[in-house]
Automatic annotation (TrEMBL):
InterPro entries assigned to the protein according to its UniProt record, in alphabetical order: CvfB_fam, CvfB_S1_2nd, CvfB_S1_3rd, CvfB_S1_st, CvfB_WH, NA-bd_OB-fold, S1_domain, WH-like_DNA-bd_sf
A Pfam family reported for this protein in Swiss-Prot or TrEMBL: CvfB_2nd
Protein source organism: Gracilibacillus xinjiangensis
Protein name: S1 RNA-binding domain-containing protein
Similarity annotation: Belongs to the CvfB family.
Length: 283
């Protein structure tokens, strides 16, 4: 019977009992798991799962997500020692194991985020929700992006995140990639982000930036530099000649963006550069 767990089956009602119905194979369908009255010998479509006592039970709430069938599921609980629980459309919330989540909890999903998952089983035969891998997304029939999207604002759900960048599926069904240089911080797995299309590739996938346009980001970057100066007694060991990796490691922006922000601040006579350092001009 364990092989039916996580699937939808058509089963016959054997008899009615005080707590609900006994279906064929002695599977229990509780009263609170169906909204209709059933009769003996009637056939009913049910989703099979295990309850908290590891008993095989059924529900007439039929989820779109099943074994080997993928769909978006909302995160409803986060437990650092276990993982996150998602709602697949039944009263049974399913665990996404911490083993299938990013190494760093800072990019774990939060309540309200959504993961693209199917169902699987652990070694004891209990249901787990399994996030889709990159191979799964490559096989799924997501749409190719049309021309005319360049520089448009677009929203997408993060399905993979790492140091190199983050991958997302947009609300229109396009696959997108956010390089680590095009984000100020790493998005969470399952987070809905809004960005700007900076490239439509030949295969119909998108490159997306979460950073604002240069003329907008320059002001934000300048404020960040000023904050660093104020926190370090008016001096920082950086200038427009500094190493790009050192700049990114401290400010998480490119050297070009750093130089634009320095230029803005020098034009406003708020800073000056001497001996490879930047100084706050006292007024």
């Amino acid at each position: 019977m364990n092989n039916q767990i996580g699937t939808i089956q058509t089963l016959e009602v054997l008899r009615k009992i005080d707590t609900g119905y006994v279906l064929e194979n002695d599977i229990l369908l509780h009263h609170n798991e169906t909204d209709s009255e059933l009769e003996a010998e009637q056939s009913v479509d049910v989703f099979i799962y295990q309850d908290k006592k590891d008993q095989t039970v059924a529900t007439t709430q039929l989820p779109a997500i099943q074994i080997d069938t993928y769909g978006w599921a909302e995160v409803v609980e986060v437990l650092p020692h276990l993982g996150v629980f998602v709602n697949i459309g039944t009263s049974k919330e399913i665990l996404v194991s911490k083993d299938d989540l990013p190494l760093f909890e800072s990019v774990w999903p939060m309540i309200g985020d959504e993961l693209y998952v199917s169902l699987g089983k652990d070694r004891k035969g209990r249901l787990l929700a399994l996030p889709a891998t990159e191979i799964v997304f490559e096989r799924q029939l997501f749409e190719a992006a049309p021309d005319g999207l360049l520089n448009t604002v677009i929203s997408g759900r993060i399905y993979r995140t790492d140091r190199e960048g983050s991958a997302c599926i947009t609300e229109e069904g396009y696959r997108g990639f956010i390089h680590h240089t095009e984000r100020k911080e790493e998005p969470r797995l399952g987070e809905l982000v809004e960005g700007r299309v900076i490239e439509v590739k030949q295969d119909g996938t998108l490159n997306i930036s979460l950073r604002p346009l240069k003329q907008h980001s320059m002001g934000e970057d300048a404020e960040m530099i000023l904050a660093q100066l104020e926190e370090n007694n008016g001096v920082i060991p950086f200038s427009d000649k500094s190493d790009p990796e050192d700049i990114r490691g401290t400010f998480n922006i490119s050297k070009a963006a750093f130089k634009r922000a320095l230029g803005k601040l020098m034009k406003e006579r708020k800073i000056e550069q001497r001996d490879g350092k930047t100084y706050l001009i006292s007024k």
